[in-house]
Amino acid sequence: MGSAFPAELRPARKPRTRPPWDVLAAVAAGGAIGSVLRYGAYLAWPGPLSTFVVNVVGCLAIGVLMFVITDLVAAHRLVRPFLGVGVLGGFTTFSTYVADAVHLVLGGRAALALVYLAGTVLACLLAVAAGVLGARSVAGALGRGNR
């Protein structure tokens, strides 16, 4: 059976390559560390406020990290998977953020759930921007920047 699309519109097939096991291992190791840190924050301060703080702090760190490894230093190729996707991806938790909102709604606090949902997204976006701008400002004050 032929394809419904002409040959020139079909995407070219890429040859199969070996899985990047070193990258997967870096993400897994970083994710384990970040998840343990997040769980520790939850044990110290359970509830939606803990999730909010973890997500905002994690997004601030992501902003700093992305500026540093893209504009300041020539980072090893596993730094972003380990720190960005692994540690900070494991530390921040948008699945718990949604679960917290559901619990607020089920507890009869739907308005608070909406404020929590919108406020978290806004605060996290602002935190990423603050991380980038703050790191850029510090780098500029130190006379560094753009590799």
From TrEMBL:
Family to which the UniProt record says this protein belongs: Belongs to the fluoride channel Fluc/FEX (TC 1.A.43) family.
Transmembrane segments: 21-40, 52-74, 81-99, 111-135
Stated regulation of activity: Na(+) is not transported, but it plays an essential structural role and its presence is essential for fluoride channel function.
Keyword Nucleotidyltransferase: no
Species of the source: Saccharopolyspora antimicrobica
Entry GO CC: plasma membrane
Name assigned to this protein: Fluoride-specific ion channel FluC
Gene Ontology molecular-function annotations: fluoride channel activity; metal ion binding
InterPro entries hit by this protein: FluC (IPR003691)
Membrane topology value: Multi-pass membrane protein
